[in-house]
């Protein structure tokens, strides 16, 4: 943090005292020589927090404690397409006094996958149908070079229908069908391997792919990642995704390029302390 009067303030908004990631972004700013600071503000009512961003002319905010709250989305002045697609605000950018809502999950996971393998012309299998997947498919649809095909699997199949609108989605189906499916890249975007014990991603499943990508940040060494490493498959972990979704937030709010390698080092150091 340089703190010379031009320091950009990014807020972490939460319902309660929750300092996770302060120990990631502040040391990262220090090492990268970025004139910015990441500070926690908390209140069970998000309105005074959002008003504060505008009134105090902060550069932006990460909405961590409120990102699953659909009502929170009404507090900002406008929405980027990434936010409209999931009807959630993952972060806010203050654009000359107007607060614009964005969502970073899909682009974060796509960049994480692309850090280990290209998706152009590839066969992708995506597991999940939540906000990350909605956002990921939207980001894929914007690529100049699309994957050859995408299969989306989920536990609840009724949530998959809407994905048929994408021409590149070849098939949707139940998670239990995964053992008969082959592809280039396997992407997990569910709670499996984090808060939920994973009995789905077995060695037999992972053998059918060349690369895997995981999502949880509760641990980096999930069952899926451990199997992928054992089988010498390319792999992007949930901590890589955490890094890239952070990169999306910082590049958007601060209008600068972020070095993912330096940021990943701080993600590892910070999450190792706070995620037990
Ligand atoms: N690393 C990062 O930086 C980062 C950033 C954002 C999110 N995440 C993680 O990404 C994951 C997805 O986030 P999201 O916002 O998309 O969540 P979401 O909208 O709540 O969707 C959750 C997904 O997980 C599936 N799921 C939950 N429990 C399951 C179980 N027992 N068996 C099989 N599938 C199960 C759900 O299936 P149903 O539809 O059948 O319920 C759904 O597809 C979360 O674990 C989140 O913590 C990580």
TrEMBL record:
InterPro entries: Aminoacid_DH-like_N_sf, NAD(P)-bd_dom_sf, Shikimate_DH_fam
One Gene Ontology term from the biological process aspect of the record: chorismate biosynthetic process
Record Gene3D superfamilies: Leucine Dehydrogenase, chain A, domain 1, NAD(P)-binding Rossmann-like Domain
Alphabetized GO MF terms: shikimate 3-dehydrogenase (NADP+) activity
Highest taxon in the source lineage: Bacteria
PANTHER family xref list: BIFUNCTIONAL 3-DEHYDROQUINATE DEHYDRATASE_SHIKIMATE DEHYDROGENASE, CHLOROPLASTIC (PTHR21089:SF1), SHIKIMATE DEHYDROGENASE (PTHR21089)
Protein name per its UniProtKB record: Shikimate dehydrogenase substrate binding N-terminal domain-containing protein
Organism: Candidatus Amesbacteria bacterium RIFCSPHIGHO2_12_FULL_48_14
């Amino acid at each position: 943090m340089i703190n010379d009067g031009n320091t950009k303030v990014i807020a972490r908004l939460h319902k309660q005292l929750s300092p996770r990631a302060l120990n990631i972004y502040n040391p990262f700013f220090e090492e990268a020589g970025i004139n910015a600071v990441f500070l926690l503000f908390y209140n069970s009512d998000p309105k005074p927090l959002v008003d504060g961003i505008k009134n105090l002319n902060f550069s932006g905010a990460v909405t961590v404690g409120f990102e699953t709250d659909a009502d929170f989305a009404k507090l900002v002045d406008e929405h980027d397409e990434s936010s409209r697609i999931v009807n959630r605000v993952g972060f806010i950018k203050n654009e000359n006094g107007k607060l614009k809502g964005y969502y970073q999950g899909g682009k974060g996971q796509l960049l994480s996958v692309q850090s280990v393998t290209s998706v152009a012309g590839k066969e992708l299998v995506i597991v999940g149908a939540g906000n990350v997947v909605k956002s990921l498919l939207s980001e894929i649809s914007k690529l100049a070079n699309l994957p050859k095909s995408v299969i989306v699997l989920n536990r609840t199949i009724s949530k998959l229908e809407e994905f048929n609108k994408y021409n590149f989605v070849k098939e949707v189906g139940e998670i239990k069908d995964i053992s008969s499916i082959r592809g280039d890249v396997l992407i997990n975007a569910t709670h499996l391997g984090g808060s939920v014990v994973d009995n789905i991603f077995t060695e037999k499943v992972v053998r059918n792919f060349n690369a895997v990508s995981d999502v949880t940040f509760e641990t980096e060494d999930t069952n899926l990642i451990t199997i992928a490493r054992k089988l010498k498959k390319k792999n992007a972990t949930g901590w890589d995704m955490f890094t890239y979704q952070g990169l999306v937030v910082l590049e958007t709010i601060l209008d600068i390029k972020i070095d993912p390698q330096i940021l990943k080092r701080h993600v590892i150091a910070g999450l190792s302390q706070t995620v037990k």
